[in-house]
Here is the input.
Amino acid sequence: MTLLHLEGVTRTVRLIDAPPLTILSGVDLDVAVGDRVSIVGRSGSGKSTLLNLLGLLDNPTTGVMLFDDRPVQSFSSSHRDRVRGRDVGFIFQQFNLLQGRTALENVMTPLLYAEGRAFWQRSRIAAEMLDRVGLGHRLTALPDKLSGGEQQRVAIARALVRSPRLILADEPTGALDLETGAAVMTLLDEVATDSGAALVTITHDPNIAATATRHLRLDGGGLRPVHDPVRDRAHDPALDAVRGTAPATMPDAMLA
Amino acid sequence: MNRVVSNLVGSFVEAWQELRIHRTRVLLSLVGVAVAVCAITTVVALGSVAQQATVEQSERQGGRPASLSMQISQSDGTAPDSAAMQALWETELARYRVGHASRLVQTSQLVQFRDGAAQVQIQGVDPAYGTMHRIRLLHGDWFTAADADRLAPAVLVNSVFYDRIGRPDLRTHPTTTLLGTQNATAVITGVYQATAWDNAPAMYMLADAVQALGPADTLALRGSGQPPSYELWVPPALAEDLRAALTRDVQGALGSTANVQVYRQDYAAYSGDNPYLPLQLVVGGVALLVLLLGALGLVNIALVTLKQRIREIGIRRSFGATAGRVFFSVMMESVVATIVAGVVGVIAAVLIVTNPLVEGFIGQGQVTDFPPFPVEAAVLGLVCATAVGALAGLLPALVAVRVKVIDAIRY
Ligand SMILES: Nc1ncnc2c1ncn2[C@@H]1O[C@H](COP(=O)(O)OP(=O)(O)OP(=O)(O)O)[C@@H](O)[C@H]1O
Ligand SMILES: [Mg+2]
Here is the structure.
């Protein structure tokens, strides 16, 4: 079943005193339930912009984008918010946990925007989800008392607590060391499989990209398939950086 | 419906979490709000308690609205025939179906105390007088019709009198001796509170019993019996008509030598002015100012913390919070905070107003049944707190909905 359908999607942003910047110039993409998609691309190629579109945080400038076979441009603002809350789960590179709130409260957050059973039983559901990611004993821990890997596990629990049909992960292992990153990805893959959700992962790490079943590269404002991400290192930005051919605009964080 | 409830509860939960995290800063600005709410509530409550006290005091003096007083004098200085007058009075009461009426006979009487004899003011009244003037007794009971049949007259003494005879237990039927050419014994059946400025013994007696004591004594042991005056408690709407009718009837019956005056004597006939109004206005105004300053503090905190929270709002939006929900939650933060402050303020106000010291100051020992804390004052305090919270929350809430989600979660 097709969840997302993009055809010739563009995204152009207006700049204050410069000509409009076209970030995406024609993206075609289909995501079905249960899909595992990885997207790689240079820094600044528009990966996050694309992910924001997929997660209904942003609207395409032109092109067709269907969510559940309905054009997203027709959604009212609050309807988009509700669909996002119900069907989409985000995982960010910087975890983006709510500071000052316990792990449990963080995982409960999406349920605050739910209704019925999910809303009223949010505490129990969130606790179960945390247990599921192996943090059942850290319910009351604050984010700054958790390690990076643990924080990302909390974020995964939060993204999955409403059983979304689409999980969007923007460099989920970017702030983690290799080993922890791999463990987190394994976990993410497991829970996504359990809930039957589609998983779209943006990553720099070819090994992480390899865990997906479809591999795509964002380049020049469009998506093209990559057949073997581990071999496809020629365009890996991390390696570009190491070779000293990285674009001048590459953020320091990328080089670190 | 379901969505409304979960949205409401959800906003409340979010607001509460936010307040918990910034509790120190929030607490500080709330002190002002709590103090202001306390002041407003106290002022309003004190006003209505004081008014009640004033009313009670006035009623004890002038009777309840509407009370008519009738005085009769004759141009030749003699008193009208008392038997004829009594018959006329009873006819009038029956004609106009006045249920609560009383004669008033003022006299004085020498009474024997352990430490010597003293003159005691006597008010001769009918049993209805107790209700008409809201008289409350410290001990014992007000007169009943049965008291008229007693051989030894019943008297109700004031607390000064009672203290002077050593506060005997009324169940032992204490008596007192009324001195005269022939001494009489009276039974004390009740005690009432003397006014704060009154330090002379006084007593109530039934009007008939006063008359039975006999005429003025040559040794001046007993005061000369003034002709009674009359009091009626009537519905305020009928007061004016009854006043005119009573004047006409009695004047007609007594002839032109008599001078009949009937007038309203209850406080409501003059004005219902609240003597504390100016003070209330001043304190209320200052409190309102403090309230607004507290609100300003809240706005300030909300705006400062909002800067740090733009990211948080972005995160919430990405997990399904609608713009309306964000607006409402941010607004709720102020409202929840000020309501908490309001409740604290109102509780403080209740403690202040119902404090025995304050009650004593307002009541001057005169208010027997203190009115309970006025609900309208408490409600007003909470409404003020909520309104100021909503006002303070409006600006930050407007800023919060304008947050661009994609910019907020960008790193
Ligand atoms: N709202 C905007 N206004 C101006 N420029 C923007 C805006 N959004 C994105 N851009 C620009 O578009 C380009 C793509 O941004 P995007 O964040 O999608 O890149 P990315 O592929 O996610 O990069 P990275 O790998 O570094 O996260 C960048 O050059 C960015 O500066
Ligand atoms: Mg990005």
